[in-house]
Amino acid sequence: MGLGQAYPASLSIQHLCCMRSGRLVLDNINLSLTGGQMAWVKGPNGCGKSTLLRCISGLIPAFDGEITYHGIISLHDGNAALDEELSVENALKFWANLDDIAADKLAQSAEIFGLGHIMDIPVHMLSTGQRQRAALTRTICGNADIWLLDEPYNGLDQHNVAMLNHAIKIHLDNGGMVIITSHNDIIIENITPIILDLS
Ligand SMILES: Nc1ncnc2c1ncn2[C@@H]1O[C@H](COP(=O)(O)OP(=O)(O)OP(=O)(O)O)[C@@H](O)[C@H]1O
């Protein structure tokens, strides 16, 4: 990960308000996390879950309040950010090279989601679940301390849900942090997420 043990990852959101197209979407949101902790952001469609993750990652400005953090952030959302024309392998290698990730670490991460047999397929030919797995591989093999996972279970079969939960557990055990949005319950052994309900 990006930070050593001497400087653990942390995140603090205080009185955050966020506007979209002139409408207040997030109103007075507060959340504090340290290394090893996970937050589950829940609530009905349109309540602002994705907006919150995009705000934390700096893609949407806060209207009011403060977000402070130590660590490197990786945002995983519906936009896979993988080049549609490249093979899965080359699309992932593009990011691995930028992030200075060793080839064997990328290969190991791709194996977690069983990408081996689809590494030579162009990204635009992937199914929903395959695309989700490829995009998750990018986050999992990276150096980020803080994973922002927006509906990461969408499209995943039961086996790959278990694989993702295992990867999350290892990340938390290593002092990482996770903020996740999901409409489904999150069941990860020995992990009790902090719930942020935006209902
Ligand atoms: N690009 C955008 N421009 C303006 N408003 C937007 C934009 N994207 C979303 N919104 C609005 O922001 C509000 C929150 O949307 P957001 O996507 O954060 O909700 P969500 O809780 O993630 O929903 P879902 O459960 O459907 O994924 C909604 O009212 C939506 O209409």
UniProtKB/TrEMBL annotation:
SMART domains: AAA. Coiled coil: none annotated. Pfam families: ABC_tran (PF00005). GO terms for biological process: cytochrome complex assembly. Keywords: ATP-binding, Cytochrome c-type biogenesis, Membrane, Nucleotide-binding, Translocase, Transport. Residues 11-199 form the ABC transporter domain. GO terms for molecular function: ATP binding; ATP hydrolysis activity; transmembrane transporter activity. PROSITE patterns: ABC_TRANSPORTER_2 (PS50893). It comes from the Bacteria. PANTHER family: ABC TRANSPORTER I FAMILY MEMBER 1. NCBIfam families: ccmA. This is Heme ABC exporter, ATP-binding protein CcmA. It comes from Sphingorhabdus lutea.
